[in-house]
Fold this protein.
Amino acid sequence: MALDPMDESLKRLADDAITAEAVRQIGHEAWLYQRSAESSHLLGVLLDLAERNEPVTLLLASGTQRQGHVELVGRDVVGLRTSQGKRSLFALKHLSAVIPDPAAPEIIGDRELTAEQADRLPHFHTVLEELLEDPPLVAATMAGRQEPVIGSFIRLGLNVLVVRQADGSSVHIPVAALEEFAL
């Protein structure tokens, strides 16, 4: 039984409408993805990595690379646990790049942070203060230096910290100069 030409026209119109809607939906999803990517920010990327516990490589301004999992995200600091179980703190201003594991799902980092949420993120100085409760042995690397200062973290001032080396000498390091603080 042959279809009535009117029925064929209606079927074509319906098919065209379905196709047009599918194309519109794909375009809308692409637009949403693009908007999401345009809204990404460094703290969002780091928070996503911490939440997913994905491996990451941090490239530092000095050219150094560190690999591990993000454990701490602060306003101006990120904490990493290496595969050897060591912990390090890095000043965000000395990060050159954040490279997620290529096998991991894509990280966008577009989460919105309210002022209240941002206020709850610790500052580098606050994290250092907490470490003084049980002063650790540290390796403090300053921007522009390859060799760290190694010793006991003994004091923290307003903008300077003190590391006592094995020979008993004290090294006063401006907090702003810290690139990596390895525990």
The beta strands are 55-60, 65-73, 77-81, 87-91, 95-100, 137-142, 149-156, 160-164, 170-174, 178-182.
